[in-house]
Amino acid sequence: MQPTPEQSPHHAYPDHWEADVVLRDGGTARIRPITTDDAERLVSFYEQVSDESKYYRFFAPYPRLSDKDVHRFTHHDYVDRVGLAVTIGGEFIATVRYDRIDATGRPASAPADEAEVAFLVQDAHQGRGVASALLEHIAAVARERGIRRFAAEVLPANNKMIKVFRDAGYTQQRSFEDGAVHLTLDLEPTAESLAVQRAREQRAEARSVQRLIAPGSVAVVGTGRNPGGVGRTVLRNLLAAGFTGRTYAVNSAFAADQATIDGVPAHRSIGEIGEPVDLAVVAVPADRVPEAVTDCGEHGVQGLVVLSAGYAEWGAEGRERQRELVRHARSYGMRIIGPNAFGVINNSEAVRLNASLAPESPAPGRIGLFTQSGAIGIALLSGLYRRGAGLSTFISAGNRADISGNDFLQYWYEDPDTDVVLLYLESLGNPRKFTRLARRTAAVKPVVVVKGARHSGSTPPGHAVPVSRIPDATVSALMRQAGVIRVDTVTEMVDAGLLLTDQPLPEGPRVAILGNSESLGLLTYDACLAEGLRPRPPRDLTTAATPQNFRDALAEALADRNCDAVVVTAIPWVGENGEAESGDGEVLAAALRTAAATGPAKPVAVVHVEIGGLAEALAAATSTAALPRVVRASAPAVPDASAAPADRAVPPTAPGDQLTQQRSDTGPGETPAVPTLGRIPAYPAAERAVRALAEAVKYAQWRRQAAVPGKVPEFLDDTIDEAGAAARIDALLGPDPDPRGRPLSHDEACELLGRYGVTVRPTLPAPDPDVAVAAAARLGYPVALKTTAPHLRHRADLGGVRLDVANEAALRRAYGELTDLLGKPTELQPVVQSMAPRGVDTVVRATIDPAAGAVLSFGLAGAPSELLGDTAHRLVPATDRDAAELIRSIRAAPVLFGWRGSAPVDTAALEELLLRVSRLVDDHPEVVSVALEPVVVATQGLTVLGASVRLAPSPARTDLGPRRLPNY
After folding, report:
1. Which residues of the chain have pLDDT under 70?
2. Beta strands in 746-896 (DSSP E)
3. Which of 401, 799, 910, 917 has its CA 20 to 30 A from that of 24?
4. Hey, CA dihedral for 587, 588, 593, 596, is it positive or negative?
5. What is the CA radius of gyration of the chain?
6. Cα–Cα distance between 336 and 965 in angstroms, integer?
């Protein structure tokens, strides 16, 4: 909503304050600034507020607003006086305002940094988290306008409002004065306030998903009058799945006297139903969708699954139609799956929802599957069906204009029916949030991701997302840092998902191999080595092995303390007539499942070649419930778990916590359980089984490390001048900075880095031989003479560097050789630098990527990183563990640790340098690029020989600030 000419001409309407938010019950609302056009809305809103709420707001009976009140509450300058409203369907349901005050409590202007704040929420919407969301947004607005504290007067009986302030997580002071509670809130975000905000976000977004996939009633809007068609297919699938709620068919073309279709009540509109409808599946042409959305919104539908196509996948016009669809639905408090969606499935026995076009309904299971592609969704459903795997929930979100994979991560995080999360993603709308949510979810259950459209410029139509400048390998490394299991194909996703769902996590990389084929065992052994596992020599049971021999061998391997996992290889038995006998697959499967169920909890995978019935029998289980497991006494640490008790998102004790499981062992005082014959995943190739096992090993290692997160060493605080660096950055950018940013000069970069304890070795210009000699004399021999021209920088292979120049004569000779070989001094821009101790040349970089955020990178200088791409990456802020892993994760890392008898270098100094660079870019988002090259790491200490820094106005952070839904 734009302001009228009566608004203050000095401060334009701040449209960036507008936001859609998810409330505690999963519904949505819009927050926006109040304008002079809102007088009638304000009066109507106030009339619907109870006398008690009015009394709490004004401390006296206040039945109606005067004209003066209405004028005051609708006229703001958006600096010293600000009002925000929460709207649903265009009408106010809550308001908040602040007025800047001085130390005496009188109206004031800047530089006064305190404001009085007051809320009013319609009684019908109290308890939905409206005031909490408003406090987040009005606090962000106040900080933007230079206000640092809120003051509020609250009546002691107004417990709800007092709780809103108390639970917000801000530093606050409280006193009792003149019959009222006086509260002062420091608006600087704290770790607790951020944790509270994210815990509320998690509950609200999880609830919004639950409203969509566990409805009490479903209406299919666009049910065809004749068999076939999208709407009729969805209705048929709903009925076939045995949906436990009420089902309705809606089509404006139904005859007035048509009462049912396929045994379901038939209506011409949602309004005709006369009963609450929780979910509407919209299957009408795109030009009729707005009418359907209005019908749904006006009659209280909670959410939509829009199967209709013709949106952003059709170009600019369709993209605008898609944005209008989202705005339209959210104005009524509804969320959307789609458009261009394939549908949703919820196999919970209490729901049994199949509101999709899936030709085969998957069996109930413990895998949650999200896909952005209907075609890939069909392929995944088919693959899981053939392998005997079941799903808890399935979502194909199409253009994912609203509900995204992030929302389902919020839901699956605490869903007790989901043990493993599988995601097929073609784009990441909010990568920082995805990384945060994936890390938290991965701490309690595996998250397996296939990323389609991995190459630059190939984002699918309909997916409006930030464009990343970092290569796909970097994205993969950052996902792994967050605990995500990144695989390349949907086949690998299914392979990994089956192993992670049905088997406990391995405690290490030691693998036992046993089977009745020596050749297949050797192939498995080679595959283990290729994947970084530690296989034991294969145990050949010979082709004469019976199922009992397999059972005994598997039980022995599982009992071996030097074994963390077992791969069983099996080929058909050869009969006396020389023909393969494959009919004993069920017998072998029973033997293997019995051994696995009664032995210690270690993962088992089977590689088989054409043994009839084996894979099917191994996939069969006695139930779809989670296997009985013993879980760690203390759950893994979760980064967002520091919220106040009232708002903490408690990590679920999901069956996915398998680090110390036992299949049949019992703890003290426990009754021994009957062993459950669980599924064992079977694979047609050794490479596929081993690759899935290797992913499980890496994930288990990440889980163990995530239980004790790293930290930033405190010693860095004593040598970092954060305030001085901030002042210097402001001065360098100036009052009107160029949005494109600016590179710093060598001296400016060295000064800024120095404030974070990063010392760059001095360099002096050498425009001619005489100046070079003078510079060397000043620095002291021996020196290095090198070019700094962009096309020659860091290119020692082109002859642009002369090292260990010992005296003046040698320097003049080197200078002449350099200019004779490469060109004039004005082109080469030569410099003189004192020699550093010998060591390993490395490179440290940090960049701000618009999609991924701040990324810290490390590699060896020259060919390893530039030619071979041997570079490691971590998200900022980096911890001590991140820094240690960063330098050890490159393939050339042995060079740093004494390769071929060389002396190990000072990796501790290198880790400290990485942490200092990480702190710099984390503390100052205006630092958009840092490159230290080369960094020579010696046996003791290191030397930074070159540095470049680029500054730019601070980019917007989508992962901080008040909660808001994205607009794609």
Report:
1. 1-10, 429, 453-471, 574-583, 612, 621-677, 715-716, 793-797, 850-851, 955-960, 968
2. 763-765, 783-787, 801-805, 830-834, 840-849, 853-860, 871-875
3. 401
4. positive
5. 32
6. 12
Q: Are 100 and 115 in contact (CB under 8 A)?
A: yes
Instruction: List, in sequence order, the alpha helices (H) in 227-373.
Output: 230-241, 270-273, 289-298, 316-331
For residue 458, what are the CA distances in angstroms to 370, 467, 496? 20, 10, 26
Burial class (CB in 10 A: 0-12, 13-18, 19+), 712: middle
CA 113 to chain centre: 35
CA distance linking residue 428 with residue 476, whole number of Å: 13
Residue 483 contacts residue 456 (beta carbons within 8 Å): no
Give the tokens for residue 339.
């458009």
User: CA 288, 459, 921 angle in degrees (round to 5)?
Assistant: 120
Of 419, 480, 467, nearest to 444 by C-alpha is: 419
CB atoms within 10 A of CB 812: 15
Q: In the prediction, which pLDDT does 623 show?
A: 40
- C-alpha 766/C-alpha 805 separation (Å) is 14
pLDDT in the model for residue 963: 86
What amino acid occupies position 395? I
Q: In sequence order, what DSSP letters do the residues of 462-519 get, joined into one string? A: T---PPP-S-HHHHHHHHHHTT-EEESSHHHHHHHHHHHHHSPPPSSSEEEEEES-HH
* Under 8 Å between Cβ of 17 and 137: yes
Q: What is the reported pLDDT for 3?
A: 44
**CA-based angle 393:397:403, to the nearest 5?**
90
pLDDT recorded at residue 525: 97
In this prediction, residue 627 carries a pLDDT of 43
d(CA 964, CA 957): 12
Residue with tokens 């000095």: 10
CB atoms within 10 A of CB 104: 6
pLDDT of residue 460: 57
pLDDT confidence of residue 738 = 87
Token readout for 218 is 């479903």
Beginning with the edge strand found earlier in the chain, give each strand of the sheet holding 217-221 in spatial order: 260-261, 264-267, 246-250, 217-221, 279-282, 303-306, 335-337
* Position 669, amino acid: G
Rounded CA separation 407/394 (Å): 13
